[in-house]
Amino acid sequence: MARHHDTIEILVTARHLEAQGIRPTARMVRLALGGGSNAAIAQALATTELTPLEELIRRRRDQLDLELTEARHALAALEAEQARLDELAESLSTLDKA
């Protein structure tokens, strides 16, 4: 089964090949990655001609930062809900003792 590689992973591998003086082809990148789809690799290599790798990394980092912020907000809301339930449970137990 072919392992899926994301665009950034493919392009970083291609950069490593270029640094070694090798012109990366889809087949060479696939071999360097230890698998993957030739079509996906070729598409990723074509992407870098339109958008530099550094820009793709910056965009992905920005997207992850946004997702982390959203996750932190969701966690805070869950913790607030849990605290509210704890207060309600404590209130009920106080009523039961009375």
Structural features:
single chain; 98 residues; mainly alpha; 0% strand; KfrA_DNA-bd_N; coiled coil; KfrA N-terminal DNA-binding domain-containing protein
Structural write-up:
By secondary structure, the protein is mainly α. Helices cover 81% and strands 0% of the residues. The chain has helices at 7-19, 26-33, 38-50, 53-97. Helix 1 (7-19) packs across helix 2 (26-33), helix 1 packs across helix 3 (38-50) and helix 2 (26-33) packs across helix 3 (38-50). The radius of gyration is 24 Å and the shape is rod-shaped. The termini are far apart. It comes from Azospirillum baldaniorum. Residues 61-98 form a coiled coil. This is KfrA N-terminal DNA-binding domain-containing protein. Keywords: Coiled coil.
Q: Estimate the helix proportion, in percent.
A: over 70%
Low-confidence residue ranges: none
Count the DSSP helices. 4
Class derived from helix and strand content: mainly alpha
Distance separating the two termini = 65 Å
Radius of gyration: 24 Å
What is the element string, with H for helices and E for strands? HHHH
> How many β-strand stretches?
0
Instruction: Indicate the proportion of strand residues.
Output: under 5%
Mean pLDDT: 90
Described by strand count, sense and barrel closure, the largest sheet is: none
Query: What would you call the shape?
Result: rod-shaped
Pfam family, one: KfrA_N
Protein name: KfrA N-terminal DNA-binding domain-containing protein
Coiled coil: 61-98
Keywords: Coiled coil
